[in-house]
């Protein structure tokens, strides 16, 4: 499949051309090489997982994609253009939203207000415009509320929309974080270990919501995950990292039968 071609998956979803490309990325922290010469692409509309054992470099890679880290070597290409070094907020403005492994919500604020903060990118009118031209600001406010309410409905969190986040159980907080990221209407949604710390039921719920988001909104999703099992049913393609290197890349079936991947997960010594 060429980078420009689209294809239809077995379950009838259309996967488009390449939207993001990591080319020969190397990232060091002092003497530690967290990522060594890794290349892979992300296609429009796909669910792309990056997996690997502890310390493999997954978080580092997610942080390169989201602009938190600038790699010493390599290039990030987005929508056909090489991305210059950017601040994380600039990357977010380009339509790349993320969630965090350790939930980063405003605990004292309600679910609704937390999700509203995800709309910052869409809020055009500044203070002056609001003062001079109330109509525009009001129209925007209505649009923002409508978009947020749609997401709240979609993720089935209506019942807790007024509840302060601090009072919610872990699994629901994760869902609120997903809602906030979605409120930005991202082209690419980055999920940092979305299932970490969840019980089986919460994992099943989160998997379903990730699939539904991808299906309903056509959002491209890249996620990192430690646990190989949970992503295999979810992902179209999987990158496998180990000790900062890419050791596998392909469909879940291809990756599952890759000997280097099996060895890495069984903890077989490497040279
Ligand atoms: N800020 C940092 N400073 C120094 N070394 C770091 C930093 N962040 C990561 N590393 C090192 O880079 C390597 C890759 O770490 P990274 O957190 O990216 O792996 P990971 O696959 O996400 O691991 P985990 O599954 O445990 O979260 C590790 O050796 C780690 O100690």
Label this structure with key terms.
P-loop_NTPase, binds adenosine-5'-triphosphate, 271 residues, Amino acid/amide ABC transporter ATP-binding protein 1 (HAAT family), ABC_transporter-like_ATP-bd, single chain, 6-stranded mixed β-sheet, Rossmann fold, 10 helices, 4-stranded antiparallel β-sheet, alpha/beta
Q: Care to describe what's here?
A:
The two termini are 34 Å apart. The chain has helices spanning 58-65, 88-93, 111-117, 127-132, 134-154, 170-183, 200-217, 228-232, 252-256, 259-266; strands at 7-8, 14-15, 18-29, 32-43, 47-51, 73-78, 81-82, 96-98, 188-192, 220-225, 237-242, 245-250. It has one domain (7-266): Rossmann fold (3-Layer(aba) Sandwich), CATH 3.40.50.300. The radius of gyration is 19 Å and the shape is globular. With 271 residues, the chain is an alpha/beta fold. The strands form three sheets. The chain has a six-stranded mixed sheet with strand order 8-9-10-5-11-12, with helices on both faces. It has a four-stranded antiparallel sheet with strand order 4-3-6-7, with helices on one face. The structure holds adenosine-5'-triphosphate. Adenosine-5'-triphosphate binds next to strand 4 and helix 1. Adenosine-5'-triphosphate (ATP) binds at residues 29, 32, 34, 52, 54-60, 226.
């Amino acid at each position: 499949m060429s980078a420009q071609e689209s294809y239809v998956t077995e379950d009838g979803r259309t996967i488009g051309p390449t939207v993001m490309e990591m080319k020969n990325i190397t990232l060091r922290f002092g003497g530690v090489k967290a990522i060594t010469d890794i290349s892979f692409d992300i296609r429009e509309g796909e669910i792309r997982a990056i997996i690997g054992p502890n310390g493999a470099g997954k978080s580092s890679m997610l942080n390169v994609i989201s602009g938190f880290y600038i790699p010493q070597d390599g290039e990030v290409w987005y929508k056909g253009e090489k991305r210059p070094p950017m601040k994380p907020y600039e990357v977010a403005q380009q339509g790349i939203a993320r969630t965090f492994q350790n939930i980063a919500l405003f605990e004292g604020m309600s679910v609704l207000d937390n999700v509203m903060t995800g709309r910052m990118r869409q809020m055009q009118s500044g203070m002056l415009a609001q003062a001079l031209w109330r109509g525009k600001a009001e129209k925007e406010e209505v649009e923002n509320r409508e978009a947020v309410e749609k997401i709240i409905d979609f993720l089935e969190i209506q019942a807790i929309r007024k509840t302060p986040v601090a009072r919610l159980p872990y699994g629901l907080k994760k869902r609120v974080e997903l809602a906030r990221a979605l409120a930005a209407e991202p082209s690419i949604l980055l999920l940092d270990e979305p299932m970490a710390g969840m019980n089986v039921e919460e994992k099943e719920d989160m998997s379903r919501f990730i699939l539904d988001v991808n299906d309903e909104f056509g959002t491209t999703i890249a996620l990192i995950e430690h646990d190989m099992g949970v992503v295999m049913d979810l992902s179209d393609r999987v990158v496998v990292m180990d000790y900062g290197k890419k050791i596998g890349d392909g469909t879940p079936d291809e990756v599952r039968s890759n000997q280097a991947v099996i060895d890495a997960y069984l903890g077989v010594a490497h040279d």
